[in-house]
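Hi U.,

Before I forget, here's the chain from the pilot set. I'm dumping it here mostly so it's searchable later in email.
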Amino acid sequence: MHPVLLLGGSGQAGSSTAAMLRDWHPALPLTIAGRDLGRAQHVADDLGTATAATVDISRPNLGLPGEASYSAVVATVWDKHLHGLRYAQDHGIPYLSISSGMTDIAPEVIAGGQRAPIVLASHWAAGVITLAALDVVREFGPVETIEITAILDDQDTGGPASATDMERLADASPAAYIRENGTFRWTADTEVAVPTLDGRTLPGQYVAILDVPSLALATGAPNVRFAFAMGESSGRRHHGTPSHDVQIRLTSGARTATH
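Structure:
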């Protein structure tokens, strides 16, 4: 089997994705691709059954040799040229993106109807929270409102690429994307107090993120919002280690549940 190519595989998001894939698929061959071959090789050596490669996402062929063969491409870093997508399409292999915001996905959506499968996974934490929400909705039953709040610690070790992504997405979509009374819409009314897990609140805002349409369409909930804040997480406040404070609040009539 040809290896899965992880673009940005030596960064924080990429190495974490690679580690998860290794846990789930111990024999799956991986290629850790990045600008720094030494860093990529270090990640590959730690994983086992993995190789390292230097890539240049500003080049149409990613700077990879013509004889290279892969079974899929996973983009864990923002690729403004979408050369990773084109590489996957040209080679007829699946492509998965976790770094494109809602305002970025149009080319990927169009490409999905062309030559090879595409998975859009630019949700919070690559979809983990949406999957968790779907699980609690399954237990809760019919739901009218889903509201997710998430706090990213301002000392989180996401690295410079993650910080740049956050700034880019904030600049691209200052409005929030919500579902209200069954209608998807953009709103400039974004300010909200976001609760921490230890009872505080931080100033935050509703955001445009793929979790909103994913949850709305999967559950039929007529009201869905996602709020985000950055600051001191409960984990760092009490234990010295940054954490993600995430809460899922479900409402249906007089029934409510918070997870």
